Amino acid sequence: MWSPGPEILTVAEMNEIDRLAVSSGISNLSLMENAGRQVANEICKRWSLRKATVLCGPGNNGGDGYVVARHLQARGWPVQVVTIGDHAALKPDSAQMAKRWSGGTSVFNPEKPVHGDIFVDAVFGAGLSRGLGADLSQLFEDIEVSDAPVVAVDIPSGIDGDRAKFLEGSQPWSADLCVTFFRRKPAHLLYPARQHCGEIVCADIGIPVGMVYALTDVHSNELPRRMRCDENTWPIPADDLNPARHKYQRGHCVVVSGPALMTGAARLAAHAALRAGAGLVTVVGDGGAAPILARSLTAIMVREIADGLSFKRVLEDERVTCVVVGPGNGVGPATVSNVLTALTLRKNVVLDADALTSFGGAREKLFSVLHKNSVLTPHEGEFERLFPGLLQKSANRIEAARVAAQLSGAVVLLKGADTVVANPQGQAVVNTNAPADLATAGSGDVLAGIIGGLIAQGMQAFEAAVAGAYYHGACGRLAGRGLTAEDLPKLLPYAMQD
């Protein structure tokens, strides 16, 4: 059975895939026919026979729409096509599909209501460069208010497929089902567009799988060498346990605690690191924090550190394989010192929360010592402090994370409902399994600990960040509604075995 690969393709990349497929001998008409038939199939799987109204735009998306209309009509559905835009200037393939349609057709008139029990949006595809305008925005708003289901061909009209948001001049609206082809695009996975796509189905239209790999060899000004971006469908697992290994061979993760009243975040991270498989975990804290930590931790060791020198002595132990700095540490010189100590000793690090904010305005000091096995885990606010203006001027979160990784020389995990992980080489992954329930205090501390525990065992930083994001989301799904951060580490063994 065919299933889509994890690759996420930009609009330009998907256009190039289409071009390569046609140049290999597959006709564009065949691709269009397959696309429309697949949309009709998905509709018939979900809804019983009813009056269907297919909105056909002036491009290839409209050509797909004519095919949808024909296949629904062949199955006994009453179908009406409503044309939008100049259909006298249709491209040859779309014009051919329009000629094959023998049913009822009308021209969209903003003064007249459009009726139907189900609507197919085949107006514009993902490469739209302008907004819908007032008349079409009103049309989709009226359809949405009517409560009739809407099926979008490729992507809901008005959304930029790469920027993953509605273009200016478009009133946002939501489809119930979105049927795209061959591979998903950024807008299918990134917010805010993702929440307007409804259920997303990626269908086979006869493009060979190898076309994805052909993209790597394409060189032009329009389409530079491809930097791979995938959906995080299943992470690289940690190595199977070797019965001959002892605990130090499974890695030693050190987590830095904050002061006495801020130890909770470090404890969450430490529990997660241990559950993720690190052989040993030690939490270090000052004289006020250490007694509190010692009373609340059992399998996790506690070391008191009085100053930067004593922290350095802890890390000089060669058996320490990863250091997590930031959760609940406080913003200021002490946190800066701890980060620089870990990095100058060339330790693998996970930097979260206060470890990132402490370098706001002084990022070059941080970037000068980061290395390939460093992971930064900012949410959008922390990202803005380290990379001011980058999110706003980037095409999407994928590109922002890529540039941030290149600037910093570290792996960057940009947290959110659509967490993106990128490395300095441009490889990126979008995580999609995290439920909204994870938006709770301490959740990010657990994520930092999971990643730290995986790196401690010997995983490379990028793979550990990708796996950590996936396992974190899986724990959230296992816990369900009402979860708290304390629930997550306990669920890690189940998430990692599932």
List keywords for this structure.
Rossmann fold; UDP-N-acetylmuramoyl-L-alanine:D-glutamate ligase; single chain; seven-stranded parallel β-sheet; alpha/beta; ten-stranded mixed β-sheet
Quaternary state of this entry equals: single chain
What is the class of the largest domain in the CATH system? Alpha Beta
The neighbouring-strand order within the major sheet is 10-19-18-17-16-15-14-11-12-13
**Percent range for helical residues?**
25-40%
Structural class label: alpha/beta
By DSSP, the count of extended strands is: 19
If you consult CATH, what is the topology of the largest domain?
UDP-N-acetylmuramoyl-L-alanine:D-glutamate ligase
- What percentage of the residues does DSSP assign to strands (E)? 15-25%
Number of domains: 2
Number of helix segments?
Answer: 19
Question: Quick one: overall form?
Answer: elongated
Descriptive overview:
It is a single chain. This protein has 498 residues and is an alpha/beta fold. The protein has two domains: 11-226, YjeF N-terminal domain (Rossmann fold), CATH 3.40.50; 247-497, 3-Layer(aba) Sandwich (UDP-N-acetylmuramoyl-L-alanine:D-glutamate ligase). 39% of the residues lie in helices and 15% in strands. The chain has 19 helices and 19 strands. The chain has helices at 11-23, 28-46, 60-74, 92-100, 133-146, 186-189, 211-214, 264-275, 289-296, 308-315, 333-344, 354-357, 363-367, 380-386, 390-393, 397-408, 443-456, 461-479, 487-497, and strands at residues 52-56, 79-83, 104-107, 118-122, 150-153, 159-160, 165-166, 177-181, 199-203, 229-231, 252-256, 280-285, 301-304, 320-325, 349-351, 374-376, 411-414, 420-422, 428-430. The strands form three sheets. The chain has a ten-stranded mixed β-sheet with strand order 10-19-18-17-16-15-14-11-12-13, sandwiched between helices. It has a seven-stranded parallel β-sheet with strand order 3-2-1-4-5-8-9, covered by helices on one side. A two-stranded antiparallel ribbon has the order 6-7. Helix 8 packs across helix 17. It is elongated, with a radius of gyration of 26 Å. The model is unreliable at 219-224 (pLDDT under 50).
